[in-house]
Amino acid sequence: MQHCDTLILASWCIPVEPHELVLANYAVAINDGQIVELLPAADARNRYSAGAIIERPDHVLIPGFVNAHTHGAMTLFRGLADDLPLERWLKEIIWPAENRFVGPEMVRDGTRLAIAEMLLGGCTCFSDQYFFPEIIAQTAVDSHMRAMVGTPVLEFATPWAGNATEYLNKGADLVHDRYADHSLVSTCFAPHSTAAVSDKSFGDLRVMADQLDKRIQIHLHESAKEIEDAVAATGMRPIDRLEALGLVNASLTAVHAVHLTDDEINRFVDAGVSVVHCPRSNLKLADGIARVTAMRDAGLIVGLGTDGAASNNVLDMLGEMRIAALLAKAQAGDASVLSAANALRMATLEGARTIGLDDQIGSIEVGKSADLVCIDLMYLNSQPVYDPVSQLVYTVQPQQIKDVWVAGRHQVEAGALVQIDQAEILERTSEWRQKINSQIKPGRPNRENR
Amino acid sequence: MQHCDTLILASWCIPVEPHELVLANYAVAINDGQIVELLPAADARNRYSAGAIIERPDHVLIPGFVNAHTHGAMTLFRGLADDLPLERWLKEIIWPAENRFVGPEMVRDGTRLAIAEMLLGGCTCFSDQYFFPEIIAQTAVDSHMRAMVGTPVLEFATPWAGNATEYLNKGADLVHDRYADHSLVSTCFAPHSTAAVSDKSFGDLRVMADQLDKRIQIHLHESAKEIEDAVAATGMRPIDRLEALGLVNASLTAVHAVHLTDDEINRFVDAGVSVVHCPRSNLKLADGIARVTAMRDAGLIVGLGTDGAASNNVLDMLGEMRIAALLAKAQAGDASVLSAANALRMATLEGARTIGLDDQIGSIEVGKSADLVCIDLMYLNSQPVYDPVSQLVYTVQPQQIKDVWVAGRHQVEAGALVQIDQAEILERTSEWRQKINSQIKPGRPNRENR
User: Fold this and answer.
1) Inter-CA distances, A41 with A45, A50, A53, Å
2) How far off is chain B from A10, nearest CA to CA, in Å?
3) Where are the domains of chain B?
4) Are residues B384 and A433, on separate chains, in Cβ contact within 8 Å?
């Protein structure tokens, strides 16, 4: 008998790699936070002496979701300003709220709320870009959550830094140095958008990212207006400008990419750029529907992200996966595009590739980290089960997520957080609500009677 | 002190009518299954001596959702054939499965599964069209669920009837006579589509519907192909043909209506036709996105439906409401259209209007039936609460639905069915899965390794 820390046995296991494989009555053996074997349940019982045996009949075992783009701390602004035109939303509500409240404490409390919500939703890794990235990284470590932490880069002053040079230097010192070789936290650069960063700063960023060997994640071609404004200001579409500055390469992740021409898709393919699709945010802010099928057919890697809770409003990868599959079909006029298996792949392995962590996470493979999720299909809304992949993508609700492991640590059991103090998070959230509500007038149009 | 059966006190009450009203710390008094008063919680405690007092802090109380279009029994085919092109889906899987399995027992068991799922999802009334409507009606009564049961009308034979005359006569005898004045079950006619019914049968239907004073609900302009085929076969678009046959009037409910011209919208407004929007089904079957904002701006009443579980795949009105709001924004290119309050109105009162029951349900008003839902907002994903309407539409998960009443009967308590035997439903569903799976080859493309 071979020892392992944990043996998980489930009715179905979907390893994601190989693609479209569904294994019935399989087991995953975990040791030291890593997957050591994937084998039939019957064999596993004979081969392993396990510290803990987790038996999950009627459950499907999958790799944890990778939320490839969010702004975790913005959970504290969730629902503060919905159904407003984009410009009013930003200028009247979100920016004033950020200027007034963003700080180490807000980022810590908001990120903790986000991490707790994501864990309950089966997400085991998130890529975040927000102010005070050193706090985001520390909060992830304290919560034992996997994170890709992006150093924000902007030309103008915010509560975290005064100018682009300060953003870059603070990022290098506070974030990249400290987490150069951390098991849970990785880092990248996250310039906000082409509109927010000058040519000079993009040049400095490129040098620093090359030196530190870091990826760059940027909001790109999110809205038609962003592109129009860029053309008016610079004579170039944002992608053209980034290309001229030497930033369109395999280290670049383009977030949103709602508006890409065929030619731009092909240039991304040639350069090895990857894309993060945030379908609900794009709908809610009226940006449009990204051309996911065209991008994937051309060969682009497309991950999925929730975006921040001020524009979604939940950090729920199940919902994001489902809507991605549904939207793609309507967009293509073909019900067979973006199958359930492909949507799951985007929410896991392809997301991991967009943040450069696919050697560690995104699939159930020997040697990868034990970032795993067990989902109970014995719910009315998921029955009968003809195809567990279909039920997972098109029917599962968050409450069916029963177990979540991050690097082998059991974070969610029986659908509840077992390492994180949910009551304390709710209490802190309530305190923030009172503070924010008393100072920011929520912008709800036509809502007279309250 | 005045007596009432039940007094429900919640942190927030959204009556839906008046529009956009949110009442803090309100109570609803229920007697004999009806709403007798809506008043401040403090007053309610002084005024009423209640058989049961239900206190729900942090909850929002709303009228039950009205699922204005579904095929309940198709829950038993849920996930049997996803990600297939529409024609293959219908011809290779769904129709063979229906011909082989549809019968009184299947319709009873499938409808029970659907009712249980809908109750847990906060839905207190559904409009169904499927074979064996007399079984659907009886199942609704047995489950104490409110239903609008449509008699299917088709030209061709199915397990229920042999030709259009038989459908109509069976409907009149088995359904309309028996439920002419029932507190829970109402009836209508549900011709499948213009392609499935001849001019003569539409004429017979019109006479019978007039005589019995019944509404007509039909799948109309669901896909571009439906319209093309109709033009090729008859020289007319389906709406034009219905109009020529005298069926475009205030008794008509057009389900889907994905493809309407401006002129068709205006003709619907003039005629008083109402529409049921089924956004997830329309996406999944690649039909497109209905022009909801254009329709509502023109003055049409638009309800929401889940459609059947073979094309959605869940009977979850929360999800339907959310995606309706999100899609409308992207379609209009304006984040301010179809606000949360309007989406909630579509999922309740407007849905009730599309089935002619708005005098009884759809809002929390004195004299209406006590079809009510309590939703707990003290979940991480719904916190903080700046605006309960926003949180309800953009963040709530089905597990937050804690109490559901149908005509004053407490059907869901603490998020669980208390009148219906869930275990028995799951057992019957499992038996159907085995039967269906052994005889219908699930049509999953490119899924080799199982």
Assistant:
1) 6, 13, 11
2) 15
3) 2-63+365-417, 70-354
4) yes
Asked if A87 is an interface residue toward chain B (Cβ–Cβ < 8 A), one would say no
Residue A339: its chain B contacts at CB < 8 A?
Answer: 82-83, 445-446
Q: Do B79 and A387 touch (CB under 8 A)?
A: yes
Q: Is B437 an interface residue toward A (CB < 8 Å)?
A: yes
| B78–A contact, CB cutoff 8 A | yes
Top CATH class, A65-354: alpha beta
Most distant CA pair in chain A: distance in Å? 70
Q: Does B310 touch chain A (CB under 8 A)?
A: no
Residues A117-160 have pLDDT tens digits of 999 999 999 999 999 999 999 999 999 999 999 999 999 999 99
In this complex, the residue of A82, A121, A285 whose CB is nearest that of residue B387 is A82
Domain A2-63+372-406 matches domain A65-354 at the CATH topology level: no
Q: What is the DSSP string of B398-446?
A: GGGEEEEEETTEEEEETTEESSS-HHHHHHHHHHHHHHHHHHS----TT
Does the domain formed by A2-63+372-406 have CATH 2.30.40.10?
A: yes
User: Which residues 9-68 on chain A approach chain B with CB closer than 8 angstroms?
Assistant: 18, 20-22, 24
Those residues whose C-beta lies under 8 Å from the C-beta of residue A434, and which sit 6 or more positions away, are: none
DSSP of B67-132: EEEE-GGGGGGTTSS-S--HHHIIIIIIHHHHHHH-SHHHHHHHHHHHHHHHHHTTEEEEEEE-S-
> What pLDDT is attached to residue B359?
98
Chain A residues close to B116, C-beta within 8 Å: 380
Q: Which CATH superfamily is domain B2-63+365-417 in?
A: Urease, subunit C, domain 1 (2.30.40.10)
* CB spacing of B399 vs A399 below 8 angstroms: yes
Q: What pLDDT tens digit does each residue of chain A (450 aa) get?
A: 999 999 999 999 999 999 999 999 999 999 999 999 999 999 999 999 999 999 999 999 999 999 999 999 999 999 998 998 878 888 889 989 999 999 999 999 999 999 999 999 999 999 999 999 999 999 999 999 999 999 999 999 999 999 999 999 999 888 888 999 999 999 999 999 999 999 999 999 999 999 999 999 999 999 999 999 999 999 999 999 999 999 999 999 999 999 999 999 999 999 999 999 999 999 999 999 999 999 999 999 999 999 999 999 999 999 999 999 999 999 999 999 999 999 999 999 999 999 999 999 999 999 999 999 999 999 999 999 999 999 999 999 999 999 999 999 999 999 999 999 999 999 999 999 999 998 886 655 444 333
The CATH classification number of B70-354 equals: 3.20.20.140
How far apart (Å, rounded) are the C-alpha atoms in residues A312 and A413? 26
- Residues within 8 A of B (CB atoms), A 116-135 only: 116-117, 120-121
- Test the B interface: residue of A94, A320, A326, A331 with most B CBs within 10 Å: A326
User: What pLDDT is stored for residue A317 in this prediction?
Assistant: 98
% of chain B surpassing 70 pLDDT:
98
Inspect the interface and report whether the beta carbons of A445 and B394 lie closer than 8 Å: no
Q: How many angstroms separate the CA atoms of B105 and B101, rounded?
A: 9
Nearest Cα of chain B lies from the Cα of A26 at a distance, in angstroms, of 12
ipTM score: 0.96
B380 interaction partners in chain A (CB closer than 8 Å): 113, 116-117, 120, 422, 425-426, 429
Alpha helix positions (H), A272-375: 279-284, 292-298, 317-332, 340-345, 351-354
- The residue in chain A having the minimum alpha-carbon distance to the alpha carbon of residue B281 is A326
- Nearest-neighbour CA in chain A from B110: distance (Å): 10
Partner-chain residue, chosen from B378, B381, B390, that has the shortest CB–CB distance to A117? B381
Cα separation, B222 vs B224, whole angstroms: 7
| pLDDT of the residue at B450 | 31
